Amino acid sequence: MNNVEVAPRSRNDLAKLAYEIRNILGLNDQLYVDVLHLVENILPNVFDDYCFEVCDKREMGNNHGLTINHTIKIRDDVYDGAANYVGRDRLTVIHEFGHLIMHSDAPKAFARGRVITYKDPEWQATAFAGEFLIPRHLVKNMSPDEVAIKCGVSFEAANYQLMKIKR
């Protein structure tokens, strides 16, 4: 159970943020984003104190990825999966990018009891990753199969994102 709370963000707020960041990075017309190129080659030019590390499973344990301050750590098997176009692993990399963008310097508070979804940093990072990898403005008339293939995500992620877009 996550007991850390951050500033509230709606799904629409996260979609706008993903759109703005894709625009800044020159990715707004691209369905497929090379996530490893982003975290290894582009982000070091954007953040002065940014660091990207691939760590072994002994160090990471059950964590597929972690973002601590301005360092993104990805477990080596997840890195390999992202390099081999595994949608879930690609989403994990962007999930951590979401933490970097939204939560590295953000004030956090410990919550008593359950954190409200829109104040949960894990929910925010996952929703951001879906919005970033599956951009609304490019996929709204596609099938889940098309989105999965063209955006390099799992069928489940494509289907979920399309349901959120239709709301």
Automatic annotation (TrEMBL):
It comes from the Bacteria. Residues 87-162 form the IrrE N-terminal-like domain. InterPro entries: IrrE_HExxH (IPR010359), Rad_response_metalloprotease (IPR052345). This is ImmA/IrrE family metallo-endopeptidase. It comes from Acetobacterium wieringae.
